[in-house]
């Protein structure tokens, strides 16, 4: 009695209803999550949705030779990629082209404009002391400072309000932490003691006192006559002048620069020699100050940068506005110019009327702004969504043709079994679509043309699994077994083959994803994802559904349209043979009786 029980356990079909319920619940949950997230379509890459392609050309800094080399170019690619993707831009591609060009592809959609602005600012990052600040328009009468009386009058009537406004803006701290008169101010304080109130209050008082004193004019600064003339004539509202203001200036030289204040108005600066550069910054993050609830930027400096920053802030903290400010200069433009009221070292906090976006922008510049080369925009090309739409349309047609050919083959060769295969393909397609849609906002997955190709290739991989299983079942039927035990005996053999085949496909996709970059990774990711889904669908849908269909008379009796007709498969009835009983021999038979 023990042997029959063991045989029944080996061929037991299990509970296919549970597996089908599991796959149905998973599909409903994924679909519900897709609609609840508000994203019902996958994110499209630049080749399908359109976007912007920027070509950057590397230039040697003044006095540099042979700086354009593979090492510096690869470093620049890595930094630009971090800067763009630090803004949450999905599928931004940064890669070299030739010896001195970098191509940046930014897909249309989230943060595209913000990313374009930061990609264009690719020069090295410098920290320079502020010597003079004034309104961004040209100064009408540069000789107004020739006499002391005219100078004092000019300071009170024109220069002082603008310089004081800037000084007040930069000298003030976070509103909740200080008594600053300006709600738009920015100040830099010790990041480890950001919550201490005595220092900010003292800085506000100093800033108020300093605002009442005459602010140094360009003629009073230790600048050359040529620099003073350049400062006087500079018009920061002119984009062409802003683009050339820092050309040919070495870090060790004084310079003029433009920048926007917190009100969005252009102002111009006279800046001293660079005290630090972007390589001295170890990290920068935009966070919310726990005391004030306002957005701030926390900076951490390297060991050498801490010493330089401490020395610089020690000198600046003894100056009056605006000469107690240091400018964060990127690509010749002042990104921010906070004031300093105390000596700082390894950690510093820039506070003021930051929004989340402006704080993240400044932190991103501080973190990823130090490039080994200077880059200029060589070309900016907009990729039309119409072209991508045509490519997507062509890809979908190719996929539909491939799917149609697979279905025709299944119907002609497997007949009724093709219904199980088609249902499995539909479930696999639904799971693939929902996962691609959900992975967009989750991990910034975007669907590009190579990814579409990967999905098309997956149709063949999935169909191959069905064919392996169906052929194993047919082999069992040919050996004379009925359908229900044939399904259970065929499954272990087919399962091994399917797992080995899918493992090889997934391994190839994983290797391709690791060793490649750019769009090819989209192909590898999609291929790997669909390969995993093939295992899930075959185990939790195809096999349980086949077990249920084997109980139906249409399939169990081997109908000629079921695809399991024993005669068509070459099985010779009877399916189970019995040995005929023979009478035992009683001895020699008499020939006469025979």
What descriptors fit this protein?
single chain; 594 residues; alpha+beta; five-stranded mixed β-barrel; five-stranded mixed β-sheet; 18 helices; 15 strands; disordered N terminus
Report what the structure shows:
With 594 residues, the chain is of the alpha+beta class. Helix content is 50%, strand content 16%. The chain has 18 helices and 15 strands. The chain has helices spanning 2-10, 16-36, 46-49, 70-85, 112-120, 148-171, 198-211, 225-233, 239-244, 303-316, 356-368, 385-414, 417-443, 449-478, 483-515, 519-549, 553-556, 566-569, and strands at residues 51-59, 93-97, 101-107, 125-135, 186-190, 255-260, 266-271, 276-277, 281-288, 295-301, 326-330, 333-336, 339-340, 347-354, 374-383. The strands form 3 sheets. Strands 4-7-6-12-11 form a 5-stranded mixed β-barrel, surrounded by 4 helices. A 5-stranded mixed beta sheet has the order 9-10-14-5-13, sandwiched between helices. A 4-stranded antiparallel beta sheet has the order 2-3-1-15. β6 and β7 form a beta hairpin. The longest helix has 33 residues, at 483-515. The relative contact order is 0.13. The model is unreliable at 1-12, 142-185, 192-223 and 574-578 (pLDDT under 50).
């Amino acid at each position: 009695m023990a042997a029959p029980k063991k045989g029944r356990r080996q061929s037991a079909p299990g509970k296919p209803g549970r597996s089908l319920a599991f796959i149905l619940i998973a599909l409903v949950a994924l679909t519900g999550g897709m609609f609840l997230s508000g994203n019902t379509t996958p994110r499209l890459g630049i080749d399908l949705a359109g976007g912007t392609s920027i070509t950057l050309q590397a230039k040697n800094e003044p006095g540099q030779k042979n700086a354009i080399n593979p090492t510096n170019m690869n470093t620049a690619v890595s930094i630009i990629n971090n800067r763009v993707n630090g803004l949450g831009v999905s599928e931004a591609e940064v890669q070299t082209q030739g010896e001195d060009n970098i191509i940046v592809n930014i897909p249309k959609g989230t943060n595209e404009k913000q990313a374009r602005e930061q990609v264009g600012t690719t020069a090295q990052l410098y920290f320079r002391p502020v010597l003079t600040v004034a309104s961004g328009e040209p100064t009408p009468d540069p000789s107004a400072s020739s006499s002391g009386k005219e100078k004092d009058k000019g300071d009170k009537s024109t220069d002082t309000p603008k310089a004081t406004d800037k000084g007040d803006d930069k000298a003030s701290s976070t509103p909740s932490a200080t008594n600053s008169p300006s709600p738009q101010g920015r100040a830099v304080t010790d990041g480890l003691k950001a919550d201490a109130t005595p220092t900010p209050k003292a800085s506000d008082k100093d800033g108020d006192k300093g605002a009442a004193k005459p602010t140094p004019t360009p003629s009073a600064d230790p600048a050359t006559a040529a620099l003073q003339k350049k400062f006087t004539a500079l018009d920061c509202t002119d984009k062409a002048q802003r683009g050339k203001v820092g050309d040919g200036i070495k870090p060790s030289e004084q310079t003029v620069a433009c920048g926007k204040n917190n009100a969005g108005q252009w102002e111009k600066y006279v800046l001293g020699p660079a005290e630090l550069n972007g390589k001295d910054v170890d990290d920068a993050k935009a966070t919310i100050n726990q005391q004030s609830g306002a957005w701030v930027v926390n900076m951490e400096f390297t060991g050498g940068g801490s010493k330089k920053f401490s020395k610089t802030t020690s000198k600046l903290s003894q100056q009056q506005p605006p000469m107690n400010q240091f400018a964060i200069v990127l690509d010749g433009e002042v990104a921010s110019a906070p004031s300093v009221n105390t000596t700082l070292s390894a950690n510093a906090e820039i506070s003021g009327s930051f929004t989340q976006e402006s704080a993240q922008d400044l932190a991103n510049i501080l973190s990823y702004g130090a490039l080994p080369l200077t880059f200029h925009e060589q070309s900016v090309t907009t990729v039309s969504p119409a072209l991508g739409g045509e490519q997507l349309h062509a890809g979908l047609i190719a996929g539909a043709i491939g799917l149609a050919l697979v279905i025709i083959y299944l119907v002609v060769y497997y007949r009724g079994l093709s219904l199980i295969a088609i249902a499995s393909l539909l479930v696999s397609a639904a799971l693939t679509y929902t996962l691609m849609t959900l992975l967009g906002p989750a991990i910034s997955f975007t669907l590009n043309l190579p990814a579409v190709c990967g999905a098309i290739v997956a149709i063949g991989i999935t169909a191959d699994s069905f064919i392996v299983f169906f052929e194993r079942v047919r082999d069992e039927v040919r050996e004379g077994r009925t359908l229900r035990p044939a399904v259970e005996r065929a499954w272990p053999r087919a399962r091994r083959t399917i797992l080995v085949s899918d493992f090889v496909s997934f391994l190839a996709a994983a290797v391709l994803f690791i060793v490649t970059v750019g769009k090819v990774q989209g192909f590898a990711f999609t291929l790997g994802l669909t390969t995993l889904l093939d295992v899930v669908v075959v185990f939790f849908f195809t096999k349980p559904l086949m077990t249920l269909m084997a109980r139906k008379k249409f399939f169990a009796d081997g109908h000629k349209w079921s695809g399991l007709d024993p005669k068509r498969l070459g099985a010779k009835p009877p399916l189970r043979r019995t040995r005929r009983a023979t009478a035992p021999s009683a001895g020699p038979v008499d020939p006469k009786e025979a």
